[in-house]
C-alpha cells in the first residue's frame, strides 16, 4: 500500500479519485459507476478506502504529494519518522516511493547536509604537521590562513559557502583571496580526502584559485525578483536572513554569524564589530518596516526554535550559551538550501554574494556616493571610518541613516 488512505480526509479522497477520472481512467476500472461517484462527490455517501486506494495506484508520487499535502502533520513526531525509516529499510516498494519523495521535495536539503565537512582541531593539527617543512614565512601564512578560514566559516565548509567566501575575500583583497584559495585547496586535498574522498572531490572542484585578472560578474538582479524570492521562502530563519542581506548588502559570513547583541531593532542598527585587521563594516541600518517585521515574526520563531533544539545542540557538545546568542541559530547549510529552493521557484538561481553587488549598484543608481556605499558595506575599516567621519565627511551617523532609509532597497513594500 503506497498511501494510507484511512488517514486522509474525505476531501482528499475525493480529490484523488477526481484527478484519476480526469486523467481518463474509467469508472469501471475503479469499481464504481457514474451515479455512485456523484453520491461520493456530493458527500451523500462516504467514499470507500478501497476505491481511493485503487485510484491512488494510477497517480505518480508527485501527484500524491500534491493531493495529500494538507495531512495533519501535528500528529507526526520522532517515533513516526523512525518508523518510516525502518519501513523503508525493509519494504523495497515503500523505499522506492519514499526516496523518490525525498529527492523530489527535499533534494536541496539532503545535498546541503551531505556536502558539508566539519573542520576539527585534529584536522587543523594534521595540516599544521603537513606544512611544517615549508619556509618559515610560508608556514606562518598557511597556518594563519587555514585558521582564519575555519573560524570565518564556523568550522564547516561546503561548496556554496566556499565560493561565496572566496568571492568576498577577493572583493577586499585579490592577493589574500588567492592565498586563501591555495591553502584551502591543499587542506581539502591532503586532509579532507583522507577522510571522505568523494566529498573532497566535490569541495576541491567547487571553486577555483582567483587569478590576477579574474573578474567575477554577478548575476543581474532586480528588486521585483528579490521580492518574489523572498515571498517563496518558507522557513523564517532563511527568510529573515535573505531580507537583511538584500536590504543591507552585507557579507554572507557577517550575517550568518551575527550575535543578538549586534542587532539593535529599537534603533534599527546592526553593529559589525572589528574581529581582525581585515576590513569590517562599522554599522549598517535597517528599515523601520524591516525592524518591525523581524520583531513581530522572526524573534518569536527564533525563541521557539531555541526551545525545541537546544537539547540536540547540547547532545553534540556545542556551547549552548554561545549558540543561544547567535541571531541565526539555525543550520547555515539548511538555510542556504531553503533560499536556493525559493530561487528555483522564483525563476532564477544566483549566489548569495550577488545580493551584495545588487545592493551597491542599486544605491549608486539612486545617486548615492560610492564612498558612502563603501562605508555602509564595510569596505572602509572601522578606524578609517572614524577618521573620515571626524575630519572629512559632512554628515553624522543620523544623516547616514537618513541616506540609507531614503535610497536603500525595500522588500516589504
TrEMBL record:
GO terms classed as biological process: DNA integration; DNA recombination
Gene3D superfamilies (alphabetical): Intergrase catalytic core (1.10.443.10)
This protein's UniProt keywords: DNA recombination
GO molecular function: DNA binding
Pfam family, one: Phage_integrase
Origin superkingdom: Archaea
Domain named Tyr recombinase: residues: 216-405
This protein's record includes keyword Metal-binding: no
InterPro entries according to UniProt: DNA_brk_join_enz, Integrase-like_cat_sf, Integrase_catalytic
Full protein name: Tyr recombinase domain-containing protein
Gene source species: Sulfurisphaera tokodaii (strain DSM 16993 / JCM 10545 / NBRC 100140 / 7) (Sulfolobus tokodaii)
Amino acid at each position: 500500500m503506497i498511501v494510507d488512505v484511512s488517514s486522509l480526509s474525505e476531501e482528499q479522497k475525493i480529490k484523488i479519485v477526481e484527478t484519476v477520472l480526469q486523467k481518463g481512467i474509467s469508472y469501471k476500472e475503479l469499481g464504481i459507476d457514474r451515479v455512485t461517484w456523484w453520491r461520493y462527490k456530493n458527500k451523500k455517501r462516504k467514499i470507500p478506502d478501497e476505491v481511493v486506494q485503487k485510484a491512488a495506484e494510477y497517480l505518480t508520487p508527485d501527484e500524491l504529494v500534491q493531493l495529500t499535502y494538507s495531512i495533519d502533520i501535528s500528529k507526526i513526531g520522532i517515533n513516526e519518522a523512525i518508523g518510516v525509516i525502518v519501513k523503508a529499510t525493509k519494504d523495497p516498494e515503500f523505499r522506492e516511493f519514499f526516496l523518490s519523495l525525498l529527492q523530489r521535495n527535499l533534494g536541496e536539503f539532503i545535498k546541503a547536509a551531505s556536502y558539508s565537512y566539519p573542520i576539527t582541531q585534529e584536522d587543523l593539527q594534521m595540516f599544521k604537521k603537513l606544512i611544517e617543512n615549508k619556509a618559515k614565512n610560508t608556514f606562518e601564512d598557511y597556518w594563519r590562513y587555514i585558521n582564519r578560514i575555519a573560524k570565518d566559516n564556523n568550522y564547516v565548509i561546503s561548496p556554496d559557502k566556499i565560493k561565496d567566501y572566496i568571492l568576498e575575500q577577493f572583493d577586499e583583497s585579490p592577493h589574500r583571496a588567492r592565498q586563501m584559495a591555495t591553502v584551502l585547496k591543499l587542506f581539502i586535498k591532503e586532509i579532507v580526502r583522507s577522510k571522505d574522498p568523494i566529498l573532497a572531490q566535490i569541495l576541491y572542484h567547487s571553486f577555483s584559485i582567483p587569478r590576477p585578472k579574474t573578474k567575477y560578474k554577478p548575476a543581474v538582479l532586480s528588486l521585483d525578483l528579490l521580492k518574489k524570492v523572498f515571498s517563496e521562502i518558507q522557513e523564517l530563519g532563511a527568510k529573515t536572513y535573505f531580507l537583511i542581506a538584500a536590504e543591507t548588502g552585507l557579507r554572507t559570513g557577517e550575517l550568518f554569524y551575527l550575535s543578538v547583541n549586534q542587532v539593535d531593532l529599537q534603533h534599527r542598527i546592526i553593529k559589525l564589530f572589528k574581529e581582525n585587521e581585515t576590513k569590517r563594516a562599522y554599522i549598517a541600518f535597517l528599515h523601520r518596516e524591516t525592524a518591525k517585521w523581524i520583531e513581530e515574526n522572526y524573534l518569536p520563531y527564533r525563541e521557539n526554535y531555541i526551545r525545541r533544539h537546544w537539547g540536540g545542540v547540547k547532545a553534540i557538545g556545542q556551547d549552548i550559551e554561545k549558540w543561544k546568542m547567535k541571531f541565526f541559530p539555525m543550520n547555515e547549510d539548511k538555510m542556504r538550501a531553503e533560499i536556493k529552493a525559493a530561487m528555483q521557484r522564483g525563476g532564477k538561481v544566483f549566489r548569495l554574494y550577488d545580493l551584495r553587488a545588487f545592493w551597491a549598484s542599486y544605491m549608486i543608481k539612486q545617486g548615492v556616493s560610492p564612498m558612502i556605499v563603501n562605508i555602509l558595506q564595510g569596505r572602509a575599516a572601522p578606524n578609517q571610518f572614524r577618521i573620515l567621519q571626524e575630519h572629512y565627511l559632512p554628515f553624522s551617523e543620523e544623516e547616514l541613516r537618513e541616506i540609507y532609509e531614503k535610497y536603500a532597497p525595500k522588500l516589504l513594500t
